[in-house]
Amino acid sequence: MSTWSSNFRCVTGPKSYAAPRPLTFLRHIKVFEMQTAALRYELGDHHTYDFIEGSIPHPTAPEIEDLFPGDEEFFTYFDATSSLSCRTALDDLEAYITAEGPFDAVMAFSQGASLAATLMVRQLQREPANRPVQPFFKCAVFFSGGIPADPATLPGEELRPLDYATDGEVIHVPTAHIYGSNDQQYPTFGPVLSKLCDAKMRTVFVHEGGHEVPGTRLKDAVSGAVNAIRKAVDMALTVQ
């Protein structure tokens, strides 16, 4: 997952990452830096990125297991089976934003996107009329974005995933949703999260890859992803 600023400052971060790092959230910095290198190059050097990592030991994600030595330790943001773990990750991420922000945007992949989106929804639930005066992020970029949980159910016994049929649109800032039409791991992630975001402010780009960030393997998808991100950023600047 990362966050950035146009001059955009963006917080970003990974789903699972190699240790050690003192921060308490999102994917191996080396992994996410590598995965987003082509995109960040095309976006230009006028954005800055803060990379945030996770703290819970986790098996190497299948899409990156060939890229790193077998003895390298990886982590995730929270235990998806534990509502307490999820709430702790939310509290840690909010504390980081408070201490290190403000940030203009968040860029996140898979579980990192789920965490960021859940935090954004939690802020909406806490604010009068569900429209925070100062949202955590002016826009969000989600790669194969995981499905957010209903923060109102935390720390209950089970995490309730949000869905459009029950909850409607719950995120009201510009968003870019970038996911693969051949995602065999989590095929519902991108489509479900995108529908939870305001239709008037969302941009969706579907590439031919799988559960991944478009990069050198998907060169043709990089330009489409960059265009989607730029639309979200431009919209964020327009609605300020």
Map the helices and strands.
Blueprint: E1 2-4, E2 9-13, E3 17-18, H1 29-35, H2 37-43, E4 48-51, E5 56-57, E6 74-76, H3 83-100, E7 105-109, H4 111-126, E8 139-143, H5 164-167, E9 175-180, H6 189-195, E10 202-207, H7 219-238
Parallel strand pairs: 2-7, 7-8, 8-9, 9-10
Antiparallel strand pairs: 1-2, 3-6, 5-6
Helix pairs in contact: 2-7, 3-4
Q: Could you characterize the architecture of this molecule?
A:
With 240 residues, the chain is an alpha/beta fold. Strands 1-2-7-8-9-10 form a 6-stranded mixed sheet, sandwiched between helices. Strands 3-6-5 form a 3-stranded antiparallel sheet. The chain contains 7 helices and 10 strands. Helix content is 33%, strand content 17%. The longest helix has 20 residues, at 219-238. The chain is globular. Helix 2 (37-43) packs across helix 7 and helix 3 (83-100) packs across helix 4.
